Amino acid sequence: MKNWFITGVSRGLGLAMARAALAKGDRVLGTARAAVPELQGMGENLRILNVDMGDAQGVVEAVHEAFKSLGRIDVVVNNAGYGVLGAVEVSSDAQVRQLFEVNLYSPIRIVRTALPYLREQKSGHIINITSIAGRAPGVGSAIYAASKFALEGFSASLAQEVEPLGLHVTAVAPGQFRTDFLAETSLQETAALAEYSPTVAAALKSMSTLHEHQLGDPALAAEAIVQLAHTEEPPLHLLLGSDALDRAKGKLKTITAEMARWESVTIGTDFKS
Ligand SMILES: NC(=O)c1ccc[n+]([C@@H]2O[C@H](COP(=O)([O-])OP(=O)(O)OC[C@H]3O[C@@H](n4cnc5c(N)ncnc54)[C@H](OP(=O)(O)O)[C@@H]3O)[C@@H](O)[C@H]2O)c1
User: Fold this and answer.
1) Sign of the four-CA dihedral 107, 112, 117, 120
2) What is the CATH code of the structural domain delimited by 3-242?
3) Where along the chain do its domains lie?
């Protein structure tokens, strides 16, 4: 049996992960900003703490409370997050700051607070939910992609730092999943600007038609993540969804070709003697 700390269990992937872990007989301490009727009556293996990921102190206290309440935590999942889509030129400082607070600074705070406990336990798995936008971003998602690229980079370096301590880190990058991610209740858009109609506005339009038709099933993603947490040697990176795989492969091809094309310039900057 594993003990889980999962942020954002009110909806979408977080709710699905909480359900999947409980169904496996694991214990879950989830965070949510409000009551979660969908999880009511799930038994004594579930506890929910009310935390807003924008509240730095509240986030830190929740982690301490989680370890106090469960004794040990085997899996820490940084899941809560949302998207800001639209043209960079018209994004505001407040929008960018709040997004980074929720998508990046909170996960870092959670990891930093959990690490002394995990070190003491000599085991634990940190799972950061990033995005394919953090690996192969499309147009119109620069601010969101920046927050998820940062979480990918954080995970890749952290994994090396904590591996000798017996801890695992996995950055899970989902493609499109049928959650509220693209719904008005979650997604924020920057103001429209005519100059970006063929690029940003066109991408946003196609994303809006994608809502409720995404390829990915959140329940299956949750099952994959529960399986991941029960694996002895989990990967550092895991893509979820066939669309994510296609985009990541395409990006790798482009990177490899571009590196080859510019190789002489790249290696030409070393000292000549
Ligand atoms: N679905 C996709 O296509 C997709 C693709 C790639 C990555 N992701 C990532 O997957 C994660 C989960 O998203 P989802 O698809 O499940 O979307 P969702 O259905 O919109 O759920 C988002 C979750 O994050 C929580 N959250 C957002 N802002 C918060 C804040 N300030 N404080 C506390 N909780 C907050 C929400 O809580 P409230 O109910 O209180 O708002 C909700 O539980 C996110 O990190 C997202 O970036 C999703």
Assistant:
1) positive
2) 3.40.50.720
3) 3-242
